[in-house]
Design goal:
With 428 residues, the chain is of the alpha/beta class. It is built from 14 helices and 20 strands.
Length: 428
């Protein structure tokens, strides 16, 4: 059987005999919304709570816009909210990079979208900022119950209304990507993000758990709860509104709007139904994060491995397809993620017991997986020495890996997981 797997802007076709294909898993295909604008208008006109236009009138509004690493329909989301902000006194847009790269060309394109949408609706006194986690112009709002100092860009402080535009999907330590992440890490300083992300090492900080989960038994996620606290401290007595979506390759499949908790809970319910799968682990799996921008770098692509790793048996093998056009990691993450990972694996795992530094959790989790399985063979634009230094094996031809597996074991069962950055895989 020929199977097309996401890679960069396109697909890579592989062939697996029917008798050797254990299954192909992708997020369940909901009907793509043919008229995105109409659907977004519908949910904006029927929110959980008051209309955005009502709560924004004569107020200072802060709109949180996710950065270029999200494949959501940015233009459509902006156009859905700016008409409701016409009567606001002022509007501050912030691109919520967290600790991601600031002046990325794709972020600059989002700035252009914001300008065009704002000018089309004649917004009063609008301003735009890309969050820089190392910017000294910050305000400390206090400390969460878990000891995280909540330090945010000054441009995010003191508004009457906060509007979070969010793309939802499974997240390997925050439980789910959602509107809360627009606040922390979105508009926060480096020290805040580092303190929060240190909790990624807690086993309860994992996908499938979130404080707003509809199932009370799945609400214990310390890292996500810390994010919730921080968001409440940032918004304080202000109104918080979200327009949240679930997207597939930049296309919309679900949307909702209004107060944070009911919207996020509704999105979680949809994701559990469409992107969560329980599988019988196999010795050989093929994983793609889902193409660009999910495979923009090794740093971003790794999420696909974390969310699907329960599908591979101990001592098994993974064929990993990730283009990585921007290299191994953003400059800020290079040292504590990639260079950390180049050490012997047992040293990487042991070193995490000391003081945590931001991004080290990714090296730690990568090392844990590499110790558990036999090998990861990677099809990527990254060169062979770069991959070898990170304990990964480069392949020029994915089909050669598959053919080698079948030569070793003619009855081998191979499981294919595409769009891995949006899956949540549990083992049976």
């Amino acid at each position: 059987m020929d199977i097309a797997v996401s890679y960069g802007d396109g697909k890579v076709t592989i062939e697996i005999p029917d008798e050797n294909l254990a299954g192909r898993i992708v997020p369940s295909q909901l009907d793509l919304l043919s008229d995105v604008d109409t659907e977004l208008e519908r949910v904006m006109n029927n929110p959980h709570g008051p209309l955005l236009s009502d709560i924004a009138k004569s107020k200072s509004v802060c709109v949180l816009v996710e950065d270029h690493t999200r494949d959501e329909p940015h233009w459509e989301l902006l156009n859905a909210v700016t008409p409701s902000l016409k009567d606001a006194n002022s509007v501050q847009f912030i691109i919520t990079t967290g600790s991601h790269e600031v002046e990325h060309p794709e972020n600059l394109k989002i700035i252009d979208m914001i300008k065009r949408a704002s000018e089309a609706d004649s917004l009063n006194e609008y301003r735009i900022k890309i969050n820089d986690s190392n910017d000294p112009d910050v305000v400390k709002l206090g400390t969460t119950s878990r000891g995280t100092p909540v330090i945010v860009t000054s441009k995010a402080v003191g508004h009457d209304v906060y509007v979070a535009l969010a793309d939802m999907k499974a997240h390997y330590f925050a439980g789910y990507s959602n509107a809360l992440k627009d606040f922390l890490p979105g508009v926060c300083a480096f020290d805040t993000i580092e303190a929060n992300h240190a909790m990624a090492l807690d086993p309860d900080s994992t996908f499938g758990k979130h404080p707003f989960h509809p199932n009370p038994a799945r609400r214990n996620n310390p890292l996500a709860n810390d994010m919730r606290e921080a968001a409440e401290m940032i918004t304080r007595n202000a109104k918080a509104f979200t327009l949240s979506v679930i997207s597939s390759s930049g296309k919309l499949v679900w949307a909702d709007a209004g107060r944070l908790e009911p919207v996020i809970a509704g999105g979680i319910e949809v994701l559990d139904r469409t992107a969560s799968f329980t599988v019988k682990p196999t010795s050989r799996i093929i994983v793609s994060p889902g193409g660009y921008p999910q495979d923009i770098s090794l740093y971003h692509a790794q999420r696909g491995l974390e969310l699907t790793k329960n599908a591979v048996k101990d001592k098994g093998e993974i064929l990993f397809l990730a283009e990585c056009r921007d290299g191994v990691a953003p400059e800020t993450a290079y040292e504590n993620f990639y260079m950390k990972l180049t050490a012997p694996l047992d040293e990487v795992v042991k070193s995490i017991k000391g003081k945590y530094h931001l991004y080290e959790h990714k090296a730690y989790k990568f090392a844990e997986l590499l110790q558990r399985i036999s090998k990861i063979k990677m099809y990527s634009e990254l060169d062979e020495p770069t991959l070898q230094s990170a304990h990964l094996l480069k392949t020029q031809h994915p089909q050669d890996v598959i053919d080698g597996w079948l030569k070793e074991d003619t009855s081998a069962q191979i499981l294919v997981l595409d769009k891995g950055n949006k899956l949540a895989i549990y083992s049976s």
